[in-house]
Specification:
With 403 residues, the protein is α/β, with parallel strands linked by helices. The protein has ten helices and 17 strands. Strand 1 and strand 2 form a beta hairpin.
Length: 403
């Protein structure tokens, strides 16, 4: 039987080719102007079957906004000696849009390999973790080894926009998951592969629509300036950081954040006072606070600004997430920590994160999950890259975890 180290190196070019194939098929949600994951899922399914995965199942969440009419997720299974507790590696198929193309040095949809790095949209988020999981599973397939526990690889849809058509749909429409399963999500980490994420900040995305009365720039007295009210409200919402002001060193930053982000176009001319204005907020809140109490404060501030500026304010929450932590003592956390010590020869550290992963959806169902990989945190950035050695090294760690 080929050693793990030799197998990984022998398959280095195979996994680079997989990265190139996946990157060449944009899988962007309708919210980002894309057509979903159908083409990418089909290509990955064909590739998996070609290299020896005999059990690949497709799960399709209906979505009339995309041409395929569905948002597919895939599950590849390697049966183990014991199926009472399965080991999962969960990656996601979708990627974010490229953003400002002028900031890219290469074509984001065509992988460029340079100095041990692969450049392209999605190569790290989340194809690096996807490829590590595949490579580790291939070690068992190619060497005809039956794992002690069943291995399952999930390639999920819709992670970047809230998982309504991915993990949330899978939880409520299938019986895939068991509460004693060991679940690893390779969708976050650090360059050393040292940090194991066991908790996420609670999340609220706000989309705030302020409605006033449009008028001439010289006659603010005859209108109600929606832009002015929106600016004031965004500052008041930001200042909720001073109200929900507890700290927790598990997270970085160690406090709750309320940040204005996207702003939509209002009027076409400088001399028009806008009657409508729309802005968004990204709020990452420590788990010690319940979202209901935060939303009560948000509603209170909206009513105050309405009264002061003579406007009407409506808001929606495009994303909202609240989840408990996975305990440090949980089997998946301890088994992963042991695998990292053995393969990486470093002492793991447990952390919380501000970003969101599908781990939150699982933890809400009472299913322990951890997030881990070795990466330079290139998610959503121009000139996104992954380091090929990280794919290899993390795959070795997963082989150890599968044991």
């Amino acid at each position: 039987m080929v050693s793990v180290e030799k197998f990984m190196e022998d398959n280095r070019q195979e996994i680079i080719a997989l990265e190139k194939m996946l990157t060449s098929i944009p899988a962007i949600a309708p919210e980002g102007g894309g057509d979903g994951e159908a083409q990418k899922a089909a290509a990955l399914e064909n590739w998996l079957k070609k290299v020896g995965f005999n059990d690949v199942q497709r799960y399709e969440a209906p979505d009339s906004r995309v041409s395929a009419g569905v948002r597919p997720s895939l599950v590849a299974t390697i049966p183990g000696e014991d199926d009472s507790q399965r080991v999962w590696v969960i990656a996601h198929l979708d990627v974010v849009p490229v953003g400002d193309l002028s900031l890219w040095n290469t074509n984001p949809w065509e992988v460029v390999e340079k100095d041990g790095k692969l450049f392209g949209r999605g190569v790290e988020d989340n194809q690096q973790g996807l490829c590590s999981g595949v490579l580790a599973a291939l070690y068992y397939i190619k060497n005809n080894i039956k794992p002690s526990h069943t291995i399952k690889l999930l390639f999920a849809a819709d992670e970047e926009n809230g998982s309504e058509y991915g993990m949330i749909w899978l939880i409520h429409n299938t019986d895939l998951f068991r509460k004693n399963d060991l679940i690893l999500i390779p969708d976050g980490g650090d360059s050393l592969g040292q940090t194991i994420e066991i908790a996420e900040k609670n999340l609220i995305w706000l989309k705030v629509h302020v409605m006033g009365k449009q008028t001439h720039g010289s006659r603010p007295d005859s209108g109600a300036n929606a832009c002015l009210a929106a600016c004031d409200l965004s500052v008041r919402l930001h200042n909720l950081e001073k109200i929900f002001n507890k700290t927790d060193d598990l997270f970085e930053p160690n406090y709750s954040t309320f940040q204005p982000t996207k702003r939509e176009k209002n009027v076409d001319s400088i001399n028009i006072i806008p009657g409508e204005d729309t802005f968004c907020m990204d709020c990452r809140i420590l788990p010690c606070y319940k979202l209901n109490e935060v939303l009560e404060q948000i509603d209170k501030l909206c009513r105050e600004v309405e009264k002061e500026y003579g406007v009407k304010i409506e808001y929606s929450t495009p994303q909202k997430s609240e989840s408990p932590a996975t305990e440090v003592s949980a089997p998946v956390a301890q088994k992963l920590a042991a695998a990292i010590k053995k393969v990486h020869n470093i002492e793991p550290r447990f952390v919380g994160i501000g970003g969101g992963t599908v781990g939150a959806e699982l933890r809400r169902e009472g299913i322990d999950a951890v997030v881990w990989s070795s990466l330079d945190d290139q998610a959503h950035q121009p000139n996104e890259y992954c380091i090929v050695d990280n794919i290899i090294r993390d795959a070795k760690t997963l082989v150890e975890l599968f044991k």
